């Protein structure tokens, strides 16, 4: 089969030397796949290296506290991945005696593992013939075969999975799966793919019809919600500050942040005093305040855009549950908060 042969030949010459490709250890492969979900290799690689250094086995990861895992994950986003990673590590270590499931069916039962991840682990670690279908694979297949079925519909998911299954090299599924993903990431790129040097150009349907830029087709996402968030960065004369742990369900669950007030619009310093006294623990305390950023810091998530302001609050004394400013970086925080901590000079307060 031309497609299969050209993909694997290209991969043998162009593949990147990545640490999880030099092992059949399912723990390392699983760890890399979870980290690389919705994350590019250049961003995920340092996290992978830090995780395998600190937690070289599934037992080490299982024994860690969730707070430590979240702290090491900080900056990668989609924190449910880290929570599921930790939960699954404990399940494997304590309920499966440290033995990783050896087939697609049982791997799929692990928390945080979907069909793509299970297929990747099963094929790479255990040589099972299960085709992977991720964003890169969707792009390669839709362009090569000229398929305009939307990839984020049930029909599209079924069609591309069936096609990928027909194309897989059953004798070497792990290598083929990695080859087609790498081909999509580096050769058949989302924007400006290098069709002139592509080994599949002569048989690519999208290239023949000049519709490469139009594929794959994806239905429009739901409307993005806009929220206006005001963080209260408090500190007192004893060098303490105040943070709170998010306990409700959501992407930042079990992470820490400064006390927060949500408003209906971006507010000014003139209207802040009224808002903070109405909704905050500060209403019975004497304090001075200033606005750190006149222009909103915009933090974009998959389903919402946060327009944020940081308000600097000075008090004589904070409540007993406050912490030393020196300990602030010990807590796992969303990247929005950690970036502010790095930017703001707490040593001068």
TrEMBL record:
Q: Does the keyword Hydrolase apply?
A: yes
The record's annotation in SMART domains points to: ENDO3c
- One matching Pfam family, short form? HhH-GPD
Q: Which InterPro entries match?
A: A/G_AdeGlyc_MutY, DNA_glycosylase, HhH-GPD_domain, HhH_base_excis_C, HhH_motif, MIG/MutY, MutY_C, NUDIX_hydrolase-like_dom_sf
| Enzyme Commission no | 3.2.2.31
For activity, the cofactor(s) needed are: [4Fe-4S] cluster
User: Record's Gene3D superfamilies?
Assistant: Helix-hairpin-Helix base-excision DNA repair enzymes (C-terminal), Hypothetical protein, domain 2, Nucleoside Triphosphate Pyrophosphohydrolase
Report the co-factor binding details: Binds 1 [4Fe-4S] cluster.
What keywords tag this UniProt record?
A: 4Fe-4S, DNA damage, DNA repair, Glycosidase, Hydrolase, Iron, Iron-sulfur, Metal-binding
Reaction(s) this enzyme catalyzes, per UniProt: Hydrolyzes free adenine bases from 7,8-dihydro-8-oxoguanine:adenine mismatched double-stranded DNA, leaving an apurinic site
Q: Which residues form the HhH-GPD domain?
A: 35-186
Q: What is the documented function of this protein?
A: Adenine glycosylase active on G-A mispairs. MutY also corrects error-prone DNA synthesis past GO lesions which are due to the oxidatively damaged form of guanine: 7,8-dihydro-8-oxoguanine (8-oxo-dGTP).
Similarity annotation: Belongs to the Nth/MutY family.
Q: What is this protein called?
A: Adenine DNA glycosylase
Q: Which organism is it from?
A: Winogradskyella alexanderae
UniProt lineage: Bacteria, Pseudomonadati, Bacteroidota, Flavobacteriia, Flavobacteriales
- Name of the gene: mutY
């Amino acid at each position: 089969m031309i497609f299969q042969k050209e993909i694997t030949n290209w991969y043998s010459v162009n593949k990147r030397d990545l640490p999880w490709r030099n092992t059949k250890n399912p723990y390392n492969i699983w760890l890399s796949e979870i980290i690389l979900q919705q994350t590019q290799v250049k961003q995920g690689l340092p996290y992978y290296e830090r995780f395998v250094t600190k937690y070289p086995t599934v037992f080490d990861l299982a024994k860690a506290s969730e707070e430590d895992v979240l702290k090491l994950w900080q900056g990668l986003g989609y924190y449910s991945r880290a929570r599921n990673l930790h939960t699954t590590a404990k399940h494997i270590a304590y309920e499966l005696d440290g033995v990783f499931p050896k087939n697609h069916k049982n791997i799929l039962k692990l928390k945080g593992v979907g069909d793509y991840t299970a297929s990747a682990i099963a094929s790479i670690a255990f040589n099972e013939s299960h085709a992977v279908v991720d964003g890169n694979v969707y792009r390669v297949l839709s362009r090569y075969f000229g398929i305009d079925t939307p990839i984020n519909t049930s029909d599209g998911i079924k069609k591309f999975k069936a096609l990928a299954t027909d194309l897989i090299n059953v004798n070497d599924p792990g290598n083929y799966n990695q080859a087609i993903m790498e081909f999509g990431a580096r050769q058949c790129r989302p924007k400006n793919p290098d069709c002139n040097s592509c080994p599949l150009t002569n048989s690519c349907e999208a290239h023949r019809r000049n519709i490469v830029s139009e594929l794959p087709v994806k239905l429009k996402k739901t409307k993005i919600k806009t929220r206006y968030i005001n963080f209260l960065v408090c500190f007192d004369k004893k060098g303490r500050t105040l943070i709170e742990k998010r306990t409700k369900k959501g992407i930042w669950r079990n992470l820490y942040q400064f006390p927060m007030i949500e408003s209906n619009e971006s507010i000014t310093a003139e209207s802040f005093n009224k808002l903070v006294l109405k909704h905050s623990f500060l209403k019975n305390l004497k304090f001075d305040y200033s606005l750190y950023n006149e222009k909103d810091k915009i933090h974009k998530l998959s389903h919402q855009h946060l327009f944020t302001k940081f308000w600097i609050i000075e008090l004589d004394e904070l409540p007993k549950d406050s912490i030393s400013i020196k300990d602030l970086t010990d807590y796992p925080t969303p990247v929005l908060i950690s970036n502010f901590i790095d930017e703001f000079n707490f040593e001068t307060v």
